[in-house]
What does this fold into?
Amino acid sequence: MTAVKLPSDAEAAVATPEFEAAAIRQESRRGFLLAMPSYAYLVLFFAVPLVIVVVYSFATRNRFGGTDLSGWNLASYARLSEPIVRDILFRSLWLALLTTLICLVIAYPFAYYLATRTPVVRNLMLVFVMIPFWTNFLVRNYAWRVILGNDGPFTDVTEAIGLGERELLFSKTAVVLGLVYSFLPFMILPLYAAIERIDKRLLEASRDLYASGWQSFRKVLLPLSMPGVIAGSILVFVPSLGAYVTPDILGGSKTTLLGSYIVTQFLTARNWPFGAALSFVLMAVMLTTTVVYFRKGGRTL
Amino acid sequence: MKNLTQLRILAGLLVFALVAAACGDDDEGAEQASCEVGETDGNLAMYNWAEYIDEEQLAEFASEHGISFTLDTYDSNEAMQPIISAGGSGYDVIVPSDYMVSILIDAGSIQPLNFDAIPNAANISADFEGIYYDPEGEFSVPYQWGTTGIGVNTAAVGTDFPRSWGLIFDPAISGEFDGEIQLLNDPRETMGAALKYLGYSLNTTSEAELDEATELVASTGSRLAAFNTDSADEFLTSGETVIAHGYSGDMFVQYLETDNPEDYVYFVPEEGGTRWIDNMAIPFDAPHPCTAHTFINWMLSAEQGAALTNWNYYATPNEAAYQLLDQELLDFISNPELYAGGVESLEEIEDTGDFEIKYADAFTEAKG
Amino acid sequence: MSKLLDKTASRTAGSAVEPHGWTKGVLLANGWLVYAFFYAPILLLVIFSFSDSRNVGVWGGFTLDWYEGFVDSRQTQAALWNSVKIATVSTVVSVVLGTMSALALERFKFRGKQVFDALLYLPIIIPDVTMAVMMLLFFAEFFDVLNAVFGTELRKGFSSIALSHIAFSISFVSVVVRARLAGMSSHLEEAALDLYATRWQAFRFVTFPQILPGILGGALLAMTISLDDVVITQFVTGPGWTTLPVYVFGLIRRGVTPLINAVSVVMLMASMTLVALSLLVERVRNVGTNQRRGF
It folds into this structure.
């Protein structure tokens, strides 16, 4: 996002140097006051609980599956180098990336189309995007299982068009399909918000200057909508990486992904220290990927 | 630099969190409650498996005693245990399975029962005395029990098959049912089935035996439709699978929902399988222990024990309730093939302590 | 000012921006396919809510039994209401807090901005089971401490669920609103301030209308996530506060019956009615005025 660099608010507001220091102080106080409620909230109801689990990741699982808060060690982190963890991590990264790309390819034209409608149509279309997601996500996943399953509508269709009986259920394809379905709105919403905001006269100007449709997309629309692309990608990539219900219901649990692996540690092996350690690795991977992503996009996190 | 104050605040909170985390672990052993028979000290809050008790039955209890009730549900022992152990859950009665009872006792999370307030405990069959997870029978009373075995669609598989785990694990027998077999998505059950097939105990702590079982489960490959616990019975009756690994009561209920129940059988293979027992227990900090005792006593009466089984189709530990059971259910139970290897071949899953991690890892590895 | 922009915008509408030719065809086809994709499972859900068979996916003839079952089941109804109450409260609170933090981060420089930014980002990337476990451990202590210090009688239930849902929803709202704010010029606000508008007026009449789509998007997202959350809710809930997803999750053990479909259909109907009403209200209010730029 290097195409347009707008002056930030603080720079623009301070026109005369002599008031600079005072104005910056005032701005700073305003910003802080605005952020304060959420800040305090998140520290109390997120950071503090998070620290408790960080503490757990250095503790030991006791014989009965509880966690002993003594004998601090790094054993849980040492286990992360095991090949099984690496395999699961790479497999999950790949599936999450694939899901994100598919969502982006589907959602971008959709969001663009949405943004070019009149406000009434646009709102209506947006609402119709969200309505399916006000049903329960488990129910939606089960509905997909019926569609893709034995003698379901999907096999009926493949048979009708002469592909033979193709059962998709319990395959990786079914998992990706389920993930795309679950997270597509997370891509559409921020993309729409970003595209709708763009001053379309810029696009017209580019066409007036003999840019092809592709060029004006590539050089004007895409760079200007980059914040939406980034926000959407994160909102899809992150939950895909941690997903466990869809791989379970549509994939038949035959491929263990990172999300399922973490759930297994907490809820089956009752190995909380290892579960906590795995979670932090997952969070670290996500933070790094997205920071790199942001930097590439020309914005700081 | 700017963030220094904030970092200090965060550091302070970290200390609080550390202290809080350390405090969380003190488990003072709870005292036995002193209650009279039939005494209530508030409304009943039950935490039970989903669809394991009829709401009507709870409503009946509540109206008989002039109180109200809430019923909340969980889907696994492991999801319930931390909630109870953390304290402040607010529940009066919980229903943990066998191995989980021993874990809850060790964690100090359930209180000893006052059997003076539970005279109906005399109805419980002697088979449930001195069982490993609560040897003195101080903390729990059995609620329902059942087995884990194989369900078969005889319309697809025929009736001429060995009553063996080989139906799943031996390619010579099950090779033709490609993609039509399901295993439970549970490390102890599925590794346990493989261990039984290999002739080992399902509570083994031998790594070599577990490795063999891991290879066996992994070798099922494409014959397997899915690892699934929730829908084993539905997959079988909807035609998604023809051989299913699942729980007795689930299978019976599901069979009776179909138009042709005679097309399905359920049995525990001759090599043996799991027997599990769910129990009623009272959390250490239950807000209404006397209501809880009264409820447990009420549930252990002959009529209520039979009502429970006639609703969820799991076996009752309540001897006095036997003659009140539905004929439909008795037909299933009287099937001579139900335990192909005899009742002695059944084994309960025990907590193996640190070896649980090995089971979970082996299962993940086997699934790929 | 904004009226003027409107006119410019509508005069030039339909040129380079309005898709045409094969681009239009592709966009239109993509749009319909997306809706088909979204509604395929919903259609199935609706159909089987009328099926006289315990198995979802096996048609057993028409029946209204499952709807009767919903009306009769105290537990299902209680779960539905719990979900609605929690989603409403957590959406409202997180929209306010999330929008404020988005504004602070996009429009102001202040001490500790980076720390705040990172903190705001964590709830999005944390696996939900991890958050569930940490909230469980936290609330077990937190309520004890409060009750000891202030003599209150707080227990796990509505408050712990709502507090947890808000904790992750703030971040989602903030991300969506920020995507809208990012790079959006602040010239209009400055112009308003130059013309002696107060900070509040500038926000209310200039910034707010511009970011409204972002706020609505964020609200929808927050609501959806709250209505779908199972694991975190399961760990912080108390007696009588089972939400719909938690209830459904439990039911699955004995098989998903069309009862759940019926509940979903009822929820769909309720939310669609709500949306229709709010659209109607907006229509009436906006009659004669076209407040937004018609990109």
Remarks:
- Residues 9-50 of chain A form one domain.
